[in-house]
């Protein structure tokens, strides 16, 4: 179970409880997120599994600076020389290998359990240098174009990435799809997190890949719309 095709040109790399995604562009390969520590061999195996070689990995884009998304980054960069991208608000975390900001568990039993199980702000990972800060709203000229959408809440420097040629949204931890589409394990700010979910629900895309859980292959933006665009009731409930 080293690599799984999602749509044409996109492969999911299962890295324990977290996902990374490998995208085949015209030139080299792009990796979104870098999983937990000590998972670099899984990434290299996945690259070979689609008939390419690790030195063809050119870009490593991070959705945010949490241990389960940057854990193997330093080792991957050492081997491949990939160029790294991250929102400025999380760069200090990546380049220090921590410390990580505290999270408050999201509403719901599953989120509480997973947050305690998976997220440890005192964890440290190998530091990774960031070559290129991301600018919200820009279209990265990589693999036909990734739109950078700033989506704070779970993490201040969080971005979602919309891959335009394949109409696929990479949500990072704005939400997850474990036992259904829902909240990530926790938030730095629930209010900002809700605003980011609504922002994604206003976009048009076909498929969605999550930092945690199974991808949605079609009609994904309809699912997001139904979950978050008509969110007034939920907001009222949470305010009560
Ligand atoms: Zn996270
Ligand atoms: Zn995560």
Please describe the topology of this protein:
Blueprint (H helix, E strand, L loop, with lengths): L3 E4 L2 E6 L2 E7 L4 E4 L7 H10 L7 E5 L5 H4 L2 H8 L2 E4 L1 H9 L7 E2 L3 H10 L13 E2 L5 E2 L5 E5 L8 E5 L4 E5 L3 E2 L3 E2 L3 E2 L2 H12 L5 E4 L9 H10 L2 H8 L1
Helix pairs in contact: 6-7
One zinc ion binds next to loops.
Keywords summarizing the entry:
240 residues; alpha/beta; 7-stranded mixed beta sheet; 5-stranded mixed beta sheet; 8 helices; binds zinc ion
Structural class: alpha/beta
Q: How far apart are the first and last residues' alpha carbons, in Å?
A: 44 Å
Mean pLDDT value: 95
Neighbour order of strands in the largest sheet:
1-2-3-4-5-6-8
General shape: globular
Q: What is the count of β-strands?
A: 16
Distinct bound molecules: zinc ion
Q: What's the main sheet like?
A: 7 strands, mixed
**Which percent range describes the beta-strand content?**
25-35%
User: DSSP helix count?
Assistant: 8
**Cα-atom Rg, whole angstroms?**
16 Å
List unreliable stretches of 5+ residues: none
Helices and strands, in N-to-C order? EEEEHEHHEHEHEEEEEEEEHEHH
